[in-house]
Amino acid sequence: MRVIKAALLGFGTVGQGVYEAVRTHREQLKEKLHAEVEIAAVLIKNPRKKRNIDSSVLVTTDFREILAIPGLEVVFEAIVGEEPGFSYCLQAIEKGCHVITANKVMFARYGNVLLEKAKEKGVFVGYEATTAGGIPVIRTISQQLQVNDIQRVQAILNGTSNFILSEMREKHLPFEEALEIARQHGYAEADPGNDVEGQDAFCKLMILSRLVFGTQPDWEKVEVEGIGGLSLADIEKADRKGLRYKHIADIYRDGGTLKASVKPVLIPSEHALYAVEGVNNAVTIYGSLVGKITLTGPGAGKFPTASAMIEDFAAGYRPVPQLDAVS
After folding, report:
1. Known binding site: residues?
2. Which fold has domain 138-299?
3. Binding-site residues for L-homoserine, please?
4. What's the sign of the alpha-carbon dihedral 192, 196, 201, 202?
5. Could you say which residues bind L-homoserine here (predicted)?
6. Architecture of domain 3-133+304-326
7. Which of 46, 196, 282, 322 is most exposed, with minimal Cβ within 10 Å?
8. Chain segment 206-240, per-residue pLDDT in tens
């Protein structure tokens, strides 16, 4: 049976999830793709760290070794930050590889460059995992809402912030105590700034903006406000009125201008995002034909994000033309 060779860039939480998913769902992938999927190489940063990777897999700190693998067709990119993720993805596309990425910071800024280069090279870039973990929002918009004129998107795009707000309201805790519980559960990093200050959700919103509206607003003009300024008194006062604070990413067209924000918003019980709790994410799409639909599910984590990457791969994969020509 034909073998699809893939490489994995990064072996943190998401990278490990992809590696395990390929192994545990080998039969499902074989049935879908009519081929075996082989993780041929893993790019790591620290060679001294012990990892549970099969001895047959090339483990390297040198990306050039990965590009040199004969017959490489797919690169799963799970690196944090703009670089070297962007450069690696661009080089992989130049080589003629499909790229599946979970790197929201990189893709928010350089996604259009990668998509254009992929189109030129006849390969596929999957980025479902950049926006809302395991929720298939990218594919829903790009495949199921092609005729609808999408007027607005409102979303909860950061599970850490949503968890903290839920804990504050349900357990009557101040922000710092709720944040500490998030850390204990592994929902918050040692430095949670990107999550609680809104930068994580901002990057995801910019990716959705490009997909929905074909462009992005001026980044400097997007209002980004975190949840750290909300007190327990604020949360409890809202709750007594039947309202809830949610950290909402919002984008819509106002005439010829895109308006976007990421900030705490008071919403009533009839709002689609009102009941979204804990680490869940949700995306509400306002379409001209379908009306208002909301997708809800796990917004982060090892396997939800790996699921998004594997499904992206399975849906978008096609044999690489250059390799077919050689064979």
Report:
1. 10-15, 104, 189
2. Dihydrodipicolinate Reductase; domain 2 (3.30.360)
3. 189
4. negative
5. 189
6. 3-Layer(aba) Sandwich (3.40)
7. 46
8. 999 999 999 999 999 999 999 999 999 999 999 99
